[in-house]
Design goal:
mainly alpha, 2 domains
């Protein structure tokens, strides 16, 4: 999946106007996720990352259909889902526009987190993991984090400082695995 803010080099060379949508959809046929949900998720991700803001226009249905070779009803279903969630609203004759945002990290924090994640991905690649392996490892770690986080909330701990008391490894962590 790729979410682009602003005019990409491809769009600039294709003559897309400056007022065009700041998001370009991508599909992953192998993901198993329905096409309309892939579009919804990409908009939600773009909102969380600050790439889309209230007032931004989503690509016109006909443009998405032409770019991705999908049924117009699929795009309409995605946009209807976004409207149901209160994130977008259609304007007859004009298109669909973002009307709300999702919680997001501030730009300085996001930049640092992005840089750290790129470093982690480089380390994972150097360790021999392919993309599916990286996704599986990240998903597993996220589940562990969610479980640990709820444990720490219940016990009143605000941080993970108790790790050293367990022999220096976090719950569920294996020696030598990052």
């Amino acid at each position: 999946m790729s979410i682009d803010k602003g005019v990409s080099p491809e769009a600039a060379s294709s003559g897309r106007a400056a007022g065009a949508s700041p998001i370009e959809f991508r599909l992953d046929a192998a993901s198993g996720v329905p096409t309309y949900l892939q579009l919804v998720h990409q908009v939600e991700h773009a909102l969380r990352l600050g790439f889309l803001e209230p007032g931004d226009q989503l690509p016109k249905v006909r443009d998405v259909v032409a770019a991705l070779a999908i049924n117009p009803n699929t795009v309409l279903k995605a946009y209807k889902e976004l409207e149901t969630k209160g994130l977008a609203a259609g304007r007859p004759g004009q298109g669909t526009f973002i009307q709300a945002t999702l919680s997001q990290v501030t730009l300085p924090e996001l930049t640092g987190l992005h840089r750290a994640l790129l470093g982690w991905l480089a380390d994972a690649g150097a360790a021999g993991l392919d993309e599916d392996g990286m996704v599986a490892l990240f998903t597993s770690a996220l589940r562990d984090f969610r479980g640990d986080r709820s444990h720490y909330r219940r016990s009143g701990h605000a941080s993970r400082s108790g790790q050293a008391d367990r022999g220096g490894t976090a719950s569920g962590e294996t020696e030598g695995v990052a």
